[in-house]
Sequence to fold (90 residues):
Amino acid sequence: MSNQGAAKIIDEMCDRGYVERVADANDGRAKTLVLAVRGRAALAAARKFHVKYEKKLRAQSSNREVDILRKQLELMIQQAGLDGAPLRAL
Fold:
């Protein structure tokens, strides 16, 4: 993704109220992105959905099978170089 493409997405997320740009405490030239009220609400809704979905999976499969699936997903994230934010336990 280009810097321009990322900037466009960030601009749209700001315009829609999901994130806000705030002055960086250590660098007056830089801005930090933080979740806005709407962004925190969207994150809470997503987490609620995932908890419900995992409970449904566990009802349809064994706990062991879901644990194996979760481990495989974590490995895929790690191999893709996206492991900066590990999956949370539900």
